[in-house]
Structures are given as C-alpha cells and as structure tokens.
Amino acid sequence: MEMIYDLIILGAGPAGLAAGLYGGRYRLNTLLIERGQDGGQIAITSEIENYPGQMVDQEESGATLTARMTRQAEKFGVHRAGATIARAELSGPVKRLTDTRGNVYEGKTVILATGAHPRPIGCKNEREFLGKGISFCATCDANFYEGMEVFVVGGGDSAVEEAMYLTKFARKVTVIHRRDQLRAAVSIQEKAFRNEKLHFMWDSVVDEVSGDGILDRMVVRNVKTGELTEVLADPEDGMFGLFGFIGYLPNTELFADAGLEMENGYIRTDEDMQTNLPGVYAAGDLRVKSLRQVVTAAADGAIAASRAERYVSELE
User: Fold this and answer.
1) Distance (Å, whole) CA 56 – CA 59
2) Does the annotation mark 137 as catalytic?
3) 123 catalytic, yes or no?
C-alpha cells in the first residue's frame, strides 16, 4: 500500500479502540487492524460491573460496551482493516505490517494491542475435547449445557463470575480450585457462596479428561493428598461441561523476532507505553503490568495514542 499512516493500531480490544478514539481526536491518520471481532476478551464476557461510566440501569455485557467503544472510534474517522498480520517489521522509521494475503500496511508509529488468550487447563487429552465439552467462553457455550452439570477450573474474579453466570443454565456448577480459598474479590466471593447451585472442590486440579467423542469423564487430583477422584457424567446427560478460567497468555508470538524487550512473553514498556523501539508502543493485556482490566487497557490505549501523536509531531 502506498499510504503511510501516522498511526497503525493492531488489535481492537479496549486498548486498541481507546487508542483509535484518541488517535482520531488528535487528527492522526489512523488505521485500526483487527483479525476477528472487536472487543477481544471482553466481547465474550457476560457481565461487566466495574467499568466507570458503564450502564447501571440495565445489565452491561462485554458486547454492549464494545459496541459503544467501536462507534466512538468510528465517529472520529478511524480507518479499519480486517486482516491477520503475519510479519511485523518495527525497527525502522517506517513500520511495516504484512498480512497473510501479502498486503503491507505502513505507519510512522504503531500501537500493539493484540491482548491475550485463555491459558489451557493443562490436563491430558485437553485438545481432543475442545468444543466437545471443554470451553473457555461461558457466554458462547453456556446454553449447550442447559440442565446439565458443569465444572469450572479457576478461582479468580473471572472464574467465579463465569461460574455464577453458568448457574443460569446448568443445574449444578462446581468450581475446581487448586487452593483452599478463592482469589476472587471479596464482593464476588460473597455472591458466589450465596448461590445454592454453586459448589467447590478445593485443593484440586484436573489431571485427565476422556470420553467417546464428547466429554463424559475426568480425573481430578487433590494437590495436597494426591488422591484421585473420577468424575463421570450423569447417564441421562451423557456428558458434562468443563470451562477453563485460569488466566491468559499474551498474543505476542508475532513479535518474537521484532527486537522488542519482553518478560515471559509480555512486552516491556515505560509508563508512557513506549517500548524499546522508537515509535512503537504497547497497550493492554500484552504488556508487563500489575492489573489487567478493561479500565487499565483503555487507559493504556489513550496514553499510547497521546505519545504517538507527540512522536509524529516531532517528525514534522
């Protein structure tokens, strides 16, 4: 492509959409690239309660919040491209992103906002049952388990919130947690313990899953005693659901050879979202940070766009 954008944003989650909004308001010629649906992880989040300014008179989901963010970015003239980037050249004065179709997108600055993806449960045969009993998205798949039994692996905010959401569909939901107490916020725990359909298996991990085409058996191990417990599906159901919510891994494989400083796969930045490469910024869940929430991702995006605007103005 002949056009050199002032700013290219890779990823349309909260960080990328906020960066697009600010880039547009700064009158930067901004391109936002996303390979899938807008919103990233929040697009599949059933309920959001802690984003400042969200709707409080009706239920706010990740999808509704994302839709408003997208409209805001579009309002300020952000260009859009649906593409999967295969190569990132970030070290030169002009940054180049090449997609799987061979199209090249060039920009004076780039904000990397590709987010993260769910961490696998880590049990034997896990991949064989993805979509056949194992899921990482309650809002996507909860209706498949109407009236059945469901298990949730994890103990943080997301795990407990999604477990409570699943109780709207499943007849029984059991949280499997490797510790003897939850890590979720106290307010979330209080709600969970009041939910009569929610149960807990403490000090436990899933070692193995199996079944004849669909998930109907798993082995749970007590991490303190080593005791193994076999869990079988109710014969009338024929299967059960297993949802994993044990954290995320950064989507940074694309940048492994781009010269960026990383820590355990996460991109290092300073407080202004600047990476070690001039004109390259990172925002949201893919960077080294202490709190990964919608509000911090949006803040990252706004800061990154403001620094990109200053960088571009100093080039002129």
Assistant:
1) 7
2) yes
3) no
Same domain? For 161 and 201 the reply is: yes
Q: From CA 28, how far away is CA 300, in angstroms rounded?
A: 18
User: Is 113 found in the same domain as 22?
Assistant: yes
From residue 264, alpha-carbon distances to 194, 253, 256, 286, 299 in Å are: 38, 11, 11, 11, 23
**Per the residue annotation, which of 38, 141, 157, 216 is the catalytic one?**
141
Structurally, how many domains does the chain consist of?
Answer: 2
For 80-95, the pLDDT digits (tens) are 999 999 999 999 999 9
Whole-number Å distance between alpha carbons of 140 and 12: 19
Whats the size of the chain, residue-wise? Answer: 316
Residue of 140, 180, 234, 270 marked active site:
140
Mind listing the pLDDT tens digit for each residue in 14-62?
A: 999 999 999 999 999 999 999 988 888 777 666 677 778 777 777 777 8
* Per-residue pLDDT tens digits for 268-286: 999 999 999 999 999 999 9
| Predicted pLDDT of residue 46 | 65
Q: Is the dihedral of CA 293, 298, 304, 307 positive or negative?
A: negative
Catalytic site residue from 99, 137, 207, 237: 137
Q: How far apart are CA 190 and CA 152, in angstroms?
A: 18
Does 152 have pLDDT greater than 80?
Answer: yes
In terms of domains, do 78 and 219 share one? no
Average pLDDT on 233-243 reads 97
The last residue of one of the domains, among 221, 244, 267, is 244
Q: Which domain holds residue 103?
A: 4-118+248-315
